[in-house]
Amino acid sequence: MPIARHNLLRSLATALACAAAATLLPAPAHAQYRPDRVDQGTPVAVPNPEVTDNAGAKIPQDLEFTDETGKTVRLGNYFNHNRPVIITMVYFSCPNLCTYVQDNLVNAVREGPRDLKLGKDYDIVIVSIDPDDKPSDAAQRRARYLQIADKPADQQGLYYLTGKEENISQLASTIGFGYRRNFGLASTDSSGKFAHSAGVFVCTPYGTVSQTIQGVNWPTDKLHYSLVQASDGKIGSGFLESVALPCGAVRLGAHGYEHNPWFWAGTAGGAATFAFMAIFLGMMWRGEFKKKRTTGDTSSSSNVKPA
After folding, report:
1. How far apart are the C-alpha atoms of 103 and 179, rounded to whole Å?
2. pLDDT tens digits, one per residue of 207-264
3. Which of 25, 88, 180, 220 is most buried (most C-beta within 10 Å)?
4. 3-state class of 180 per DSSP?
5. What's domain 64-261's architecture?
6. Which of 84, 133, 73 is CA-nearest to residue 108?
7. Stated pTM of the model
8. Nearest C-alpha neighbor of 106 from the set 251, 267, 218
9. pLDDT at 261
10. Pick from 182, 174, 192: nearest CA to 87
11. How far, in Å, CA of 211 to CA of 234, rounded?
12. CB atoms within 10 A of CB 183
């Protein structure tokens, strides 16, 4: 057999043997991954679902939950009291965002906002997204944050609710709170039991989402004005996400929140004064410019010698 033919057959046999061995080797781990079947204990990266602006959505007031005392309640129990309601969703074992959300709500209660009183001018309803959370957990959280806010244990207006997964999911979907279980992660993992974003949902007294404020740092003015809008039954459009409200634009009147007419009158007067000054200075500048131009033309004409 010629040497070239022998080498060709040998190379072909080697290639076939390698191919056969490759088919018998186990596939890489990522090739066996199925998103619908994750082994317990296998870390799976889950992106945080977003908070969406569902302004105008109607709160399902017939949904049942359990309050911090163990009593079965409906969401409708917290509406129809002539004051807006702030809803936010957390879970009590969350290692990150949920703590920040509750801390900021406590700061809002402590600072007002702008002298508004919890339980009188607005209410806060905090709903756990974890069906494993118990009323006793809710009671501990409520007691802790009332103490931080320097409020008595019988303070009205701050409510912690736990519930069944289907009711939690329906409320979250309605208001625009995205969340998802982190399946496969150990309970001690820093990523937490749920993947979620943060935000608060300001509702009208009769149970319509008025404003959605994303994140964990909310300027007091923004939160205050969103309560003003909600109290009047107005539905927001995301405008407050990027525009800060000037101090004094609204006030608490005898019949609830209202615009402060003196603030807007002063603002209009200031704007008119500024416009008048701008026009006056513009006319002065224009007259001076014409005067200099006329003087310059006269000087040029006087320097021209006759031929």
Report:
1. 20
2. 999 999 888 777 777 888 889 889 988 887 544 443 333 444 444 443 344 455 555 5
3. 88
4. strand
5. 3-Layer(aba) Sandwich (3.40)
6. 84
7. 0.62
8. 218
9. 59
10. 174
11. 9
12. 13
